[in-house]
Design goal:
The complex is a heterodimer. Chain A is of the alpha/beta class. Chain A has ten helices and eight strands. Chain A has a four-stranded parallel β-sheet, covered by helices on one side. In chain A, strands 6-5-7-8 form a four-stranded parallel β-sheet, sandwiched between helices. In chain A, helix 2 crosses helix 6, helix 5 packs antiparallel against helix 6 and helix 6 packs parallel to helix 10. Chain A is globular, with a radius of gyration of 21 Å. Chain B contains three helices and 16 strands. Chain B is globular. Classes of the chains: A alpha/beta, B mainly beta.
């Protein structure tokens, strides 16, 4: 009887022994894509938690996310407090020491990124959803994503040191590709270089900066809070006066507010996806960035 | 009690100072990871026939202050004080005080101390975070007006090799008292013991259903032998920052055999549905029911509660509800009681977690 039980346990554990891939959970599809590229398809098995159309500030600590994290070797996140409402809770409930703070699989991409827009003075909630550690939307810039690849390489190498040379080579390759992509899209958008663009929320700060546009501020007065009619009127007037002709908004921005702003200001509003849709495709990041450029060019040309 | 009030006043003063001067909280958190939170729950009943149930005025139902953070590399500490309005008097008490760890054993969370028992849905959630504002009768009868709490040990074990989320919670607590009590109690024959098996099923690409199977038992020379069995379920669909649909239900049965008395068997529960109306405004509807089946005569208490919920932000929300309670007894006219209730909840300090 003891032998049978022992045999069953060995059989049950056999698939785990055969599994060589590092199990990575990424908070978003963009990170999942980067992990896939740095790790290599045969070395990593990646799962993205949030859907591309989600607002990453406001997700729940869903039990299926907890289950995925409980099985993971590495958990990668945007950081900069973007996922503060759900990732810490998931990590606590998954009780997986490998991916907790200080564990080999604790992967926070913001550690290797040049996070910007850190507020100069004290921050409090009367200012809305201000991130005291800086603007977290860095994945919209290929240059920042290239920097983020270093953290992915470091975490994968810590978990699987024998493959660190391969991870390093992959990281260099993806960095080069991202830089080349940046040049390509900057060239496409060169007609807009130096031109002012408004944002609904500060989602596009890094994107605007990467491609040489000039930020004209945000339509929101308080981050995360829908602008009042008075605010919309004021921003519309200022946009007209200063000749702003383009505003960028994410897919989860309120449509009625955007329509009203368009009506008041005459500014062309482009609604853009703020994450790539299929992380398993090797060129997913390029497809997404090109899609954003296409949409912008369509309304500005 | 005076000491507790002074302690609570000191802690509230601390959070007000930290709110006004966040750099002080930062300095304290630096190197310790200490976090603070406070929640205030104001409730008013504008019209009610039942004088004992409400003072017919806007009142502070509860103010809670929490401080928590890592104790060392293995344990976290959690301390929550609360001042409750109980029949017009504010009782300041330790709501929860426990150490916890999710680092000692993989996929196992441990708790030791005084805490809300890990059974059901509402019993594990502080009342200011409930989706509605009044306590369902079944919850009040089987657990407490807010939550059954006690001092003991609890373990939650997650099974990562099962394809769907499966978590087993088991706990044992002193059992000298049960529910929400301010007395010493007496040593039980069998302490309070409970278990909950939780599962989760994704629904489409934006929703999910969490279920829990619950059992709680206790045997006391004073209160008798009690066994509670039940099911809790929560389904939620979210688009962006908005929960578009929320469905929540709990159904329990209880066997209670008081010393020298015959068996009392009862069933009770509630069903709540909430739908986003527009922007941050939701409409909810709750049905409660409770019946004692061993009396030999027909009896049923039930309630219908429509309510509106407005979320100004993650940290402030307002509710307005109209509660209609029916009490049906054999050979008697139904009793009907109506109440209009309003609530304002605000949170200070640490960012609240987004539990499913």
């Amino acid at each position: 009887m003891t032998f049978k039980i022992f045999s069953c346990l060995i059989l049950l554990s056999a698939p785990n022994i055969a599994e060589a891939a590092i199990r990575v959970v990424a908070s978003t599809s963009d990170i999942a894509w980067l992990v896939q590229r740095v790790g290599g398809a045969k070395n990593v098995e990646v799962k993205a938690l949030a859907r591309p159309k989600d607002d990453y500030h406001f997700l729940d600590a869903r039990p299926d996310y907890i289950l995925a994290v409980s099985r993971a070797d590495v958990v990668c996140r945007i950081g900069v407090d973007l996922e503060i409402g759900w990732i810490p809770k998931i990590l606590d409930r998954a009780a997986n020491s490998k991916v907790m703070a200080g564990g080999a699989g604790d992967c926070d991409l913001s550690r290797s990124v040049g996070v910007q827009e850190k507020p100069a003075g004290p921050v409090d909630r009367s200012m809305g959803d201000v991130h005291s550690a800086g603007n977290p939307h860095y994945w919209l810039s290929p240059l920042e994503m290239a920097k983020a690849a270093s953290e992915v390489e470091a975490r994968l190498s810590a978990v699987e040191p024998g493959k660190s040379a391969e991870f390093s080579a992959n990281r260099l390759k993806v960095e080069e590709e991202l830089k080349a992509l940046h040049s390509k899209i900057k060239e496409r958008l060169k007609g807009l270089s130096g031109k002012a663009a408004l944002e609904y929320h500060k989602d596009f700060f890094y994107f605007i900066q990467a491609y040489g546009l000039k930020s004209a501020g945000s339509i929101e007065e308080i981050p995360g809070v829908s602008p009042s009619a008075a605010r919309l009127g004021k921003v519309a007037l200022e946009a007209k006066r200063s000749g702003v002709s383009l505003a960028l908004a994410s897919e989860h921005s309120p449509k009625a507010t955007l329509d009203k702003f368009k009506e008041l200001s005459g500014v062309r509003v482009v609604v853009l996806p703020t994450s790539l849709s299929d992380p398993s495709a090797a060129n997913a990041y390029e497809i997404w960035q090109q899609e954003m450029a296409d949409k912008i060019l369509k309304v500005t040309q | 009690m005076i000491h507790a009030k002074r302690t609570f006043a000191f802690l509230i003063l601390c959070i007000l100072v930290f709110s006004a001067k966040p750099e002080l909280a930062h300095a304290l958190a630096e190197g310790t990871g200490l976090k603070f939170s406070a929640a205030t729950d104001l409730v008013g009943v504008v019209d009610s026939k039942d004088e004992t149930r409400s003072p017919r005025r806007l009142d502070l139902r509860e103010a809670e202050f929490g401080v928590y953070g890592p104790i060392d590399h293995g344990f976290d500490g959690n301390l929550f004080f609360a001042a409750h309005n109980e029949s017009g008097a504010y009782n300041v008490e330790v709501h929860e005080a426990y150490l916890s760890s999710s680092k000692l054993l993989n996929n196992v969370r441990l708790k030791a101390g005084k805490f809300f028992l890990g059974v059901g849905r509402l019993n594990q959630v502080h009342r200011h975070d409930w989706p509605f504002l009044s306590t369902p009768k079944a919850h009040d009868t089987y657990f407490a007006e807010e939550a059954a709490s006690d001092t003991g040990l609890q373990a939650n074990i997650l099974f990562p090799f099962i394809p769907i989320f499966t978590e087993l919670g088991v706990g044992v607590t002193n059992g000298w008292t049960y529910g929400h009590s301010h007395v010493q109690g007496t040593k039980p024959i069998h302490p309070t013991h409970y278990t909950r098996l939780a599962n989760f099923f994704p629904l489409g690409d934006s929703g999910g259903l969490q279920t829990g199977l619950n059992y709680l038992g206790r045997n006391s020379r004073v209160d008798g032998e009690m066994k509670i069995f039940g099911l809790d379920a929560v389904a939620k669909w979210r688009e962006g920052k908005i929960v578009t649909w929320l469905l929540q239900a709990e159904l329990y049965g209880r066997n209670l055999r008081a010393p020298g008395a015959s068996l009392d068997r009862s069933y009770g529960g509630y069903f709540y549905a909430q739908r986003q109306l527009v922007g941050a405004l939701d409409f909810g509807l709750r049905f409660d029911g409770y019946t004692l089946v061993t009396t030999g005569t027909k009896n049923l208490d039930y309630s219908v509660i429509p309510l509106f919920v407005y979320r100004h932000s993650e940290f402030a929300q307002f509710k307005a509800a109209y509660q209609i309670d029916f009490e049906k007894r054999a050979h008697k006219d139904s009793q009907v009681d109506r109440a209009f209730q309003v609530q304002a909840v605000f949170l200070l300090g640490d960012h609240p977690t987004h539990d499913f």
